């Protein structure tokens, strides 16, 4: 019930978000360049709103924030339907961009309420709200071509949904910490702007939005297609992209994602080059294939975000990445407007888009270990005594669950003195620069120094290594000892003895439950653990 209602709510809000387009075209006959620039305004509003809405969702929950966002969208939609002048339509249509924050609220709700093993697919189902928006758009044609009555009916629907959301939604919200929402927004902005992952999110997550917003006018101007037919084709393309998100989410629940992303970006880049050749008969098919690639990639990334983020910060993480997506959807606007002004041809815009997608594919190939680790949001543990902890991790646990394992180890490092013993049989993994835990923890713990050390299974070597490892831990560093899998238990036991560890934990990963910590040994037999 919760997932179904959230999906419908997303569809209603997404329809409100892009409602400005039909009013510009059918009521005021706005030209291509002005249309592209004006349609960028609700995208910009959404980009600015998503992060603070996500932070507030972490604090107050979807039960509060979904109605707030929907009522704000309803007010803008009512104004849009009643406005008489172009400036008023643009003002209310831009304000409707607030409804674009529904993706963040609903995504946070799904991430907190759906079990880890089904979360990727559930987020894909939630993304079908885009299809709901397409259906609403098609049904509203019968209410009048100028969109006035359709806007008023949509506003009433949003008000009804807000009431249902307040009654039905129940998502667990952690007790908020002392940090203010404003401080959290500033910290997340700084964090998102400092990582190139934001560009990756923008490329994929903004792709389907860009198709929904700009494809109708592109088809109408470049190929002289009637507006109704252009809208119908756009609806089909958006539906394809949204359905493809299901595949991306399903895949992320079961398989590593970097190679899938690389294939999607590479194929989409090639298709953009085909579109640049302007083969009119193939354009719709090519754009449909691009929508599928964007849908699969965005579904996978949305699933990675929902699975990697902590429950008490998933709103902030989705807000930051959602803002990047909205800004990414502005890129086609700039390219279309610039290409028309400079070269009088759309081919330049397609070529530039192809170059950006290819750069994204090359980035994924070069940084595959980092993909899926998520933003390195600072974890603030509850006050308590610090323990010297040895965590034992096998390589099998990181093949699919690297992000989840790294997240749990990062939580440990924030509260304990931590030494990780990692078992790997690949020679390259003995080098710290190639080790997934070293790379992942350096991203998740930007304020910590992470040190990787190869441990050869020879008698007498561990004693000499224990002293520098102990010094590293006392200096606040996270030490990772990499050893062959067959020696994992023995190395962990000896290091625990040399370092006088307080406890030893084994890290496990299952696709259904994610990463777990299991106590193997504790210096105090009466001690209890909250893991």
TrEMBL record:
The family database entries (Pfam families) matched by this protein are listed as: MFS_1 (PF07690)
Q: Which UniProt keywords apply?
A: Membrane, Transmembrane, Transmembrane helix
Keyword Phosphoprotein assigned: no
Q: Please state every residue range assigned to the domain named Major facilitator superfamily (MFS) profile.
A: 1-372
Question: Mind telling me what this protein is named?
Answer: Nitrate/nitrite transporter
Highest taxon of source? Bacteria
> What's the chief localization of this chain?
membrane
Species this chain originates from: Plantactinospora solaniradicis
Q: Where in the cell is it found?
A: Cell membrane
